[in-house]
Structures are given as structure tokens and as C-alpha cells.
Write a structure and sequence with these properties.
Helices cover 29% and strands 33% of the residues. The protein is an alpha+beta fold and 87 residues long. The protein has a five-stranded antiparallel beta sheet with strand order 2-3-1-4-5. Strand 2 and strand 3 form a beta hairpin.
């Protein structure tokens, strides 16, 4: 099981509400547009494919970051090996 942060900026209120309802079923809301989701990498890849039908890729921005436990570090965040950006 892996852990992910899903952050989004969706312009249309109807799409935003639908997207948020979908995430509320699978994750925990951390901020207004940020969710913590725990699932396998394969399930997250399938989720990323499925949400492209819910958003307008020209207007909306959805980012999925895998949480990797490297301990606490101060400084620049440059460990972005696993990053999904849907445009």
C-alpha cells in the first residue's frame, strides 16, 4: 500500500464538486483542494486514468504526489521521482 497527496485546481464548480466527491470516497481531505489517499500504485495509476474523464485538461490542474518517507529534511524539495501531472 502506498500513500499519495492529490492536489487540484478545477475551474468549473460542477466538475470540482464531482471530483471532490470522488476523492472523499477514497481519501481524507487535508486542505480544501488537497487529499491524502492510501492505495496501491496500480490502483492510483488506474485512478489517474479514470479522472481524466472528470476534468477539462485545458482548464484544470490535478497533481498526484507519492509520499516517500525519507525522514525530515530542511531545504529544497527535489525528490520527485514519482510525480503524476494531468494536463
Amino acid at each position: 500500500m502506498s500513500e499519495f497527496l492529490v492536489a487540484y485546481d478545477i475551474k468549473n464548480h460542477k466538475r470540482l464538486a464531482k471530483f471532490a466527491r470522488r476523492l472523499e470516497k477514497t481519501g481524507i481531505r487535508i486542505e480544501y483542494s488537497v487529499f491524502y489517499v492510501r492505495m496501491s500504485r496500480d490502483d492510483m495509476a488506474e485512478f489517474a486514468i479514470n479522472i481524466t474523464d472528470m476534468i477539462d485538461t485545458d482548464e484544470d490542474d490535478v497533481r498526484i504526489y507519492e509520499i516517500v518517507d525519507y525522514g525530515i529534511a530542511l531545504g529544497n524539495a527535489d525528490l520527485l521521482d514519482e510525480l503524476f501531472v494531468i494536463r
